[in-house]
Amino acid sequence: MKFTSLLASAAMALGLATGALAQDKTKVGFVYVGPVGDGGWTYEHNKGRLAVEEQFGDKVETVFVESVPEGPDAERVMTQMALEGADLIFTTSFGYMDPTINVAKKFPNVKFEHATGYKTADNVSVYSARFYEGRAVQGHIAGKMTESNIIGYIGSYPIPEVIRGINSAYIHAKKVNPDVEFKIVWAYTWFDPAKEADAATVLIEQGADVILQHTDSTAPQAAAQEAGNVVTFGQASDMSEYAPFPRVSSIIDNWAPYYIARTQAVMDGSWETVSTWDGIREGMVEIGEISDAVPADVKEEALAMKAAMAAGDYHPFTGPLKKQDGSDWLAEGETADDGTLAGMNFYVEGLEGEIPQ
Amino acid sequence: MIVLEKRPQPSKAWSYATPLVAVLATMVFGGILFAILGKNPIEAIGTIFWEPLFGEFAFYYRPQLLVKGAPLVLIAIGLSLGFRAGIWNIGAEGQYIMGAIFGAGAGLAFYPLEAWYIFPVMVIAGAFGGWLWAIIPAFLKVRFGTNEILVSLMLVYVAEQMLASVSLGLLKNPEGFGFPGSRNLQQYDSAHNAELIAGSGMHWGVVTALIAVIFAYVLLNRHMLGFHIRLTGEAPRAAKFAGVNPARLILFCLGLSGALAGLAGMFEVSGPSGVVSIDFNVGYGFTAIIVAFLGRLHPVGILLAGGLMALTYIGGEIAQSQLGLPAAAIQVFQGMLLFFLLAFDLLTNYRIRAAHSEVA
Fold first, then answer.
1. Are A252 and A280 in contact (CB under 8 A)?
2. pTM of the predicted protein model
3. Which of B67, B82, B262, B334 has the fewest other C-beta atoms within 10 Å?
4. Is residue B274 part of a domain?
């Protein structure tokens, strides 16, 4: 007997055995790349899970496994959840992409939702948030707040999502402060407090007085606090324990509405494969409260930009824009298409350094 | 007053008993830890040790034990040979990475050609990559007397940077929309280290690990070189008189452990993992050090220890999702295992005695 059919029949047998029990209870699994206490990325996904529990109460059961390495371990954890009767599984890191597709093939009746990837299947949807909209607001505030005109940026991995954020922040910092310069450090991790703190310290030593981070821990916030007059922004989560200073604002990922909607869809039997990319307008990206450390006029401008994006009147990537090598990218008034943004692998004009290859 | 008294001879009984006592102590103290976290300790320990082997879905977990245990055993066997001779290769993680890069690189160089010889070439390339990374500290030690612990460990971080570099550049999937990571070798038949029997978990890496166990056993017990290795570790002066060439021994032990770690990386990347990615390595090279010691540096012991480690990983994940145990608690549980092993190891060489209070 083939392994896949063996698995399928086992899952069916389980379905029959516990059918009466499981019928009214939808089981939702979550696979996390970091610990739920990271205070950032995984913390917010877990908040989404708790929101699902709160919304549906007894009608839903959720399970999760945290700190799952991307690769065969992830595949095993997903298989385990599917075997134990999960109806819907959220896999919340880019590196879970191929494992998700592999497991989804073996369990055609289980629905999978993969965050930040691009591979879909009959039972695999993908979802992500337009974090770059939040980066635009951050860039604006950062450009106004910096006195040394050096903004430090802690990148995780040089993947399109991160590069998009750097470009968006830079464009809007440059707009309000033509002298601004970005220094980028690649940490090659999503979550490693020690490495993140090192990166922040290096940037501060190089004269940065604003630090933007695309990593998930609060370590850079702590490093900035220690340094004294360095501005930071919360990443993925509000990180409000560092407000009002150094953390002056934040990008918050709000997955709860999406998780609730998708769980509902599984319950109704209306689940379909979708590619979701929501932003400020849909509420998937939120801007954390801008603290009083930011001058009132800057705060007002930032909120106006946020409102414009929420209304759909403003796109952070609006021409005229050139690429780093000086070639034309967007003409006056033209906005970037989603395809280009999704696979973005170039810096815009003015950014220094190369994207690691 | 209690004093420790050195035994004239290491206790044979204790050297066999310590791993078992360590496992038992880990269960007891791990159980206390789980109880403090508000979980039923018996249920938690049971889930970790019982579910993967005899639970409802054991048909899936048992093969997974092989998949998870094989690289640990393969690497630990290589390390144990050096450790026995007092040659400390701490950088197996780096050698594992280099093996994966070389192996996958060799395979992808042929893409999309399908031919029988591609996989053997990848095996050789993987072993070579690991060997190369281990021979650097070996050479530096032989030639300049550098410390192989430091050099091999530092080279892990160099290997990690190489891994990031090839994931983003040289080996990046041209059809990956700019995302890092190579093509998936699972979708390239000639390069795929598939299960030999579907659903069994047996892939070439598992077979190689078993062969390595037998090979190491024979080497240590039946071969002159094995005798030299043991002698160097147990009585360096006697080894000198017996005509052991230390430089040759260092090159051999480090080279072989590197090659085996490289093979482990190559089998992993072409099989269960499939992709060279920035986060490809998950610590097998370091965990293998624990496995080597847990197995008392004995080939059969290592085989059992590798299985036990794999069990705690897989059982730990089940405990997480079924009982809501935090991942950190599982890691503490694994840490306890090494801690107790080292602690009880003391009893092999020392005995505890109540001392009479003497006036000096």
1. no
2. 0.84
3. B334
4. yes
